[in-house]
Amino acid sequence: LTKKILISACLLGEPVRYDGKSISFTDRKIRYFQQQGYLVPVCPEVIGGLPIPREPAEIIKSVGGFSDQKVITKGGCDVTDAFQRGAKITLEIALQNNVMAALLKSNSPSCGNLQIYDGSFSNQLIDGSGITVTALKKAGIPVFNEMQVDLLCDFIERQD
Ligand code: SF4
């Protein structure tokens, strides 16, 4: 590869999710990239200062843009600041490492690239991006999820 790839730490087996677990995800190509040192693992929520484990959180619908979005835990705590801090620092890490793309965990309020939960804590997905994905996309960094490894690899081939 000519450049590195940002990746959700939970996809590499790090137990950083809200429930203190990782994701069961193995892919031959991603494993190879990891062995070759091409991956930059990040967990935006932990980077933003949230603990492991932590309460699940969802983005609350808003009519405004990124700065108007609120992230609320199931128990009603406003964790927007931590999510935005995590997004900002993650973007800085992405830029410092000059990554060509990101492979982030689907459906997360930080890392989801196509869909997120709708804010009602009733398992309903809607089209939308997590807080970190919004920041990365604004900076022109393409974001794929763990079900889009083939698309990511097509993208990488076009870059090399
Ligand atoms: Fe994984 Fe992203 Fe959630 Fe961290 S914030 S646990 S990297 S999905």
Give a brief description.
30% of the residues lie in helices and 18% in strands. With 160 residues, the chain is of the alpha/beta class. It has one domain (5-159).
Output the keywords.
binds iron/sulfur cluster; 8 strands; globular; 5 helices; 160 residues; alpha/beta; 4-stranded parallel β-sheet; two-stranded antiparallel ribbon
- Identify every distinct bound molecule in the structure, by name, code or SMILES: iron/sulfur cluster
**Biggest sheet overview:** 4 strands, parallel
The Rg value, from CA coordinates, equals 15 Å
How many separate helices? 5
What structural class do helix, strand and pairing data support?
Answer: alpha/beta
Task: Give the percentage of residues in beta strands.
Answer: 15-25%
Neighbour order of strands in the largest sheet: 2-1-5-8
**Overall structural domain count:** 1
Overall pLDDT metric: 95
Tell me the overall shape.
globular
Low-confidence stretches: none
What share of residues is helical? 25-40%
The total count of strands amounts to 8
Whole-Å distance between the termini? 7 Å
Secondary-structure element order, N to C: EHEHEEHEEEHEH
Protein name: DUF523 domain-containing protein
Pfam family, one: 2-thiour_desulf
InterPro entries: 2-thiour_desulf
Organism: Zooshikella harenae
